[in-house]
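hey m, so remember when u said the tokens were messed up on ur end? i reran from scratch. heres the input so u can diff it against urs
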Amino acid sequence: ASIGQPMGRAPPAGLWEAHVRLRLPRNLLDMDTFSKSDPGRRQGPWGGLFGRTEVIDNTLNPDFVRKFVLDYYFEEKQNLRFDVPAGPDARSSRRLLAAQDFLGQAFVALGEVIGSQRGRLERALTGVPGKRCGTILLLAEELSNCRDIVTMQLCANKLDKKDFFGKSDPFLVFYRSNEDGTFTICHKTEVVKNTLNPVWQPFTIPVRALCNGDYDRTVKIDVYDWDRDGSHDFIGEFATSYRELSRAQSQFTVYEVLNPRKKCKKKKYVNSGTVTLLSFSVESEFTFVDYIRGGTQLNFTVAIDFTRPCRAVPSPQNNNAENPSCAGIDGVLESYLQSLRTVQLYGPTNFAPVINQVAGAAAQVTDGSQYHVLLIITDGVISDMLQTKEAIVSASALPMSIIIVGVGPAEFEAMEELDGDEVRVSSRGRYAERDIVQFVPFRDYVDHSGNQVLSMARLAKDVLAEIPEQLLSYMKTRDIKPRKADPQ
């Protein structure tokens, strides 16, 4: 399999495991081995080989054992290409395939597989002129441990005294071990002042951050005495694993804190105190894909600001007040072209009416089965800022998000103010319940080198980047769980 070139990314919406099956017509297979792979070739935007399956001998319907783990990003189109070589030389990746060694290939977006019924997608193989190349069956399953969240609490007893005046100010540092034997910090507790017997507050951490899904991978914990100047004193360390920690759900687990230097110098050294795991629990957080698979429908509304220099009028509908809905993106484009021929360009530019219109639709269904996304394309000049803030604050309690794309050379301070990443939007003393606005300036995505495809892909990615988390934030605040997907 080959994968398209990656770009700068936000955290993934989920971790998925892909499984591959093939079904080939009997009259095509004239070699004795074949395997789905890409033997080192590069084509166009493809980023090279992602992985190879094992070779399965003498069969037309191979069911490969090896699976591939991929991060899924809702906001990106992650194109995959599957190449199916054949013949004895398919085992080698050092040579290009000759035409007779090639059984076919398939192109698919990862989102197509994840969004398909039960995560199963069948696609015809192509690439051999005049012959039926068979089919490839792709199955995708979300890895459960990537959504598991651990909550734990620890305390310590009789830690070494490090401060000349007073006792110690202890805190813990958690490290995840890496494949190369190094360690990466994954959590720090708060500092508990002036005690040798601290009790730290409970904290949560994703299982993936703690052990990367490997339950037996070493987790190292260092114990430090905090110093104001940053030269924290090392008290000691101990090691454990996720699996060992999880056994503490029914009993306390006590770890000896050891300082290797003291152990080497002092023959009678026992330890530098103990740390006790008081509690450990695991919960699964629902993902964006859980809700989509459970039937949550995304409703998309487009509002376009038709602008005369420094003046504009919003046109959120398709010129049909009775039925403003459009059929897909083609319908939106058709409505836009029709509006260009008929609309009169004038001001003022008011955002509040279109926000309130979508909010009214969102307020009709608040059980999680519907979620609304409003896209506003504007030059950034806004006439009703106070009313728009009020509308956003009210809409933040509803299942909806707002994306604003600023076009043209204008300054966009007003639009950036509406984007609540830094400071939550407020109106009349009320703050927005959650951040529902994403602002993206179009000019930042103009590629002067001429690679418009890449620049538009970046634009699309950033426009949609916050939708999964905003949808999840609404569901969490309302304690709405995803419905179970249809088993059929």
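this time it looks ok to me. The two ends are 29 Å apart (CA to CA). if urs says something different then somethings off w ur setup not the seq
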